[in-house]
Amino acid sequence: MEKKKMTRGKRNVIIGIIIAVVLIMVFFNAIVTFITDYWWFKDLGYTQVFLKKFFTELGIAIPSFLVVTVLMSLYMRGLKRSYSKKVDYDEEEGMSDLKIKRISIGVSVLIGLIVSYMMTTTLWKQLLYATHSTKFGKADPVFNLDISFYVFKLAFLKSILSISYSVVVIFVLVTMFYYMFLMAVRRPKSYASAQQDVYEAENIRVSPFKMLNNRRSTGADSPAMLLKIAQNQLLILAVVFFALIACSFAMKQMDLLYTDSGTVFGAGFKSSLINMNIYRIEAVLAIVAAVLTVRFTKKKKYRKLLYMPVIMIVVAMVGGVIGAAVQSLIVSPNELNREKPYLEYNVKYTQEAYDLSKVKTEKFDANGTLTGENIKNNQPTISNIRINDFEPSKQFYNQTQSIRTYYSFNDVDVDRYDIDDMYTQTFLSAREMNSDNLEDGVSWLSKHLKYTHGYGLTLSRVDAITDSGQPDMIIDNIPPESDSKSLKITRPEIYYGEMTNDYAITNTNEKEFDYPSGDDNKYSVYKGSHGIKLTPVKRLLYAINQKNIRILVSSNITSKSKLLYVRNVEDRVKKIAPFLQFDSDPYITISDSGKLYWIIDAYTMTRYYPYSETTQLKDGSSINYMRNPVKVTVDAYDGSVNFYKVDDEPIADTISKIYPNLLKDISEMPDGLEKHIRYSNTLFDVQAKIYQRYHMSDISVFYQNEDKWSIATNIYGQKEVDMTPNYFIMDLPGQDKEEFISSIPFTPSGKKNMTGLMVARCDEGHYGELVLYKLPKDKVVYGPMQIESQIDQNTEISKEFSLWNSSGSTYTRGDMFVIPIDDSLLYVEPVYLESSTDTSLPEVKRVIIAYHDRIAYGSTLAESLRSLFDLGADYEVDAGTSAGTGTSGAGGSSAANVGGADENAGSGAGAGASIPDLVSKASKAYDNAQAAMKEGDWAKYGQYQEELKSYLDQLDAASGSSGSASVEAASGDQAAGTDDSGSNNADNADKTAQN
């Protein structure tokens, strides 16, 4: 006997070991991921964030598993006991109590695991928000609950309700199947004898499902027997189910506060009067149904159990009919008066949700009294007008500054710096290592151990171009060379970036490539404080985690080596704080110490803000509340990540309570970084779209959409598109100092004239302030698209555009900038020219300036300003800007004033003619020559060719400016017949004439 016990004990141990091994194998990857993630979070100092989720999940999973498992085990024991009392069966036959007990425990454990998993994955984040919620200090107008209830707690309660429904269903299924199981293994005597008559001769084993489908001598139906046995348990579950339905209807009332009800976003007249009351009635009926279910079941009046569900369905249908009738007969005939209080809620809460209630409105007369003196007195604004554009600059950087094929510039960021005591707007772009551009078949060692980082960045003024129309660089080359004493880069290595998606292993026996230097290469050693030190155990686990055995076996890796992974800055911050939403466009900046940092805007959002209009983001998600209270920095060298709170905001404050050490005060930012934070254009764009309608505070006007606005459109490239917020440095009206701002213009809905200019201020002391410069309604102020139309209608400009497009080149119109100067508006639009060849670079060839009803069209900003405002030949924009460098061409040709009454000014044929005028005349001469050639009039053809040569010589004489160069490149080739379609027509014509 003792021997048998030992054998059984050993068997249990072996079974336990096998189960443990199986579990480890099943969860092996999850275990490895957990351990490696822990090391990663620990390296960055965010173990608190990592473990908060882990322990919260454990805090939900373990109690819920134990409670559900124990309750289910006791419940199944109760089912077994109830079965024994109600059913007469042969105790000596059937399955033993021990086996039934083991099966019951196994089922209980399985259900405990399922329910705990459901609760853990669904509730951990919602539980943290619900238990750490911060009050908004504002209540909804219907239930008078603080908005924090809807944002933080309601979703948690709804999840609990949803899980409760699932648990009730699980208990119902367990009840039915467990009784079926008992009926199969411990068959009732009367039922068993009846089955034996049929199956004894064939010796067939009876399954529970066959039993349930057969009538026998008792005259009873086996499903009826099952329901009779399970009656009490199903009754209790039915009562719980109806109670849950009551809770569900109670919560549905609150859902009405942030759903679209037609005219009003949120609960309107009909929803408040009908829908809410229907939900309340349904909740009461559900409670009554629970009581009557008990009563009817006890009295065995089973058909009456259907009464209350049917009544509830009828009430819902009647409610729908009444609601439609109320809408048609009461609301629609007098909709404004009926919906007015709810529309007021809608406007008020939407403005609050998108932080638009703080918009300061100022009148802007747009008088059109701008003079040359005003231009000279606003040089900080003029000298920062953006002539370069993002995409052409990116192409230029990639073709001229990538240096090697494995370097790439992902995008161009805009920022501002004090450059030699001038507040200057700049373009920056990081030179990142793009492993995809390494040679085909490059070794694992080269990809992960040698070519580990990018190097430096490019920086250029937004307003400065070279003689060839390209960005004039301030920081370029490798190592970075700066033309400004105030801008130096002391740590140019970029281990973390937007394109850095591969892991790297540093401090190995392999030399780490730093940057190319002539025919040789420079090498370096990573000295950053972050990175996972690869001890033997860590090498093993990271080899598994990264799915590469080379990490484990490479002889180049030592105990001093460090693994750097999750190096994409956007992925990095998302991994640390998945509860925040991040901007998809991080931007790089230079600190005062010369280090490079990425700055990323982090947002708090919800779709549960009462009475607030929803909007759809680019990723498809819908929200009705948005803020940008957190700025994140990532050190481009060592990858350290810091989160800074720039604004007190309830969701961010709640996050601070959950993770006390996560969000730092903005004052803790590294020196020089705080002055580079900016108002997010992503947020500003959302606010502008909402403000198109929600600037109207008068409810009658709002209801009728009488003053609805649209975001202005302009021609970008060669297509009409909606304008987006653009950053500028300018002197705002009424301010005494230039500042960095973002702005976007509005037009009345369906019209093109401007009605307002919205500005977001970015600099310290005014960060986050929104100002609307509202234009007068009693006079027409041209909108961007009306200026674009004037440009299109101008014959000289359109001719040059046509000439460029037909000469193997393509012109592109850049963003139109609407710039307030004193009490007037100035419009500026750069024009770019690009050859159709793959290696071409876009060049800034023209700058169009529009003011009032006049247009100037020149090779540079200075030329156009000189022409439009009669500033004189010696006028230049401040040194270092487009007028003072490159194409400004001091002393060069002047721009053509082609607008209004002066459209034909300067169109004489002499040497004093402007460049655009000469281009037009050259184009006309070429057209005439081609027409003469087709007619066979070779005498006239020769005359026109001489005339063309004369204009080209004049253009050549004006080569001190880029305008002549551009015209010669664009029109000279065309006039000479060397475009793709022309195929040297002029030369062919000469040969024909000679013959």
Helix and strand arrangement:
Blueprint: H1 2-26, H2 28-44, H3 47-86, H4 97-131, H5 147-185, H6 189-199, H7 208-212, H8 222-229, H9 231-255, H10 269-298, H11 307-331, H12 335-353, E1 360-363, H13 372-377, H14 379-382, H15 390-400, E2 407-409, E3 413-419, E4 422-433, H16 444-450, E5 454-455, E6 457-465, E7 471-476, E8 481-482, E9 493-494, E10 504-506, E11 512-517, E12 520-524, E13 532-533, H17 536-545, H18 550-553, E14 562-564, H19 569-576, E15 581-582, E16 587-590, E17 596-606, E18 615-616, E19 622-623, E20 625-635, E21 641-645, H20 650-658, E22 663-665, H21 681-694, H22 699-704, E23 709-711, E24 713-716, E25 719-722, E26 726-730, E27 739-748, E28 756-761, E29 770-774, H23 784-793, H24 795-805, E30 809-813, E31 817-821, E32 824-835, E33 843-851, E34 854-858, H25 861-869, E35 896-897, H26 915-935, H27 938-957, H28 962-975, H29 985-994
Parallel strand pairs: 1-29, 21-22
Antiparallel strand pairs: 2-4, 3-4, 4-6, 5-9, 6-7, 7-8, 10-14, 11-12, 13-14, 15-17, 16-17, 17-20, 18-19, 20-21, 23-27, 24-25, 26-27, 27-28, 28-29, 30-32, 31-32, 32-33, 33-34, 34-35
Helix pairs in contact: 2-3, 2-17, 3-4, 3-5, 4-5, 5-9, 9-10, 10-11, 24-26, 26-27, 26-28, 27-28
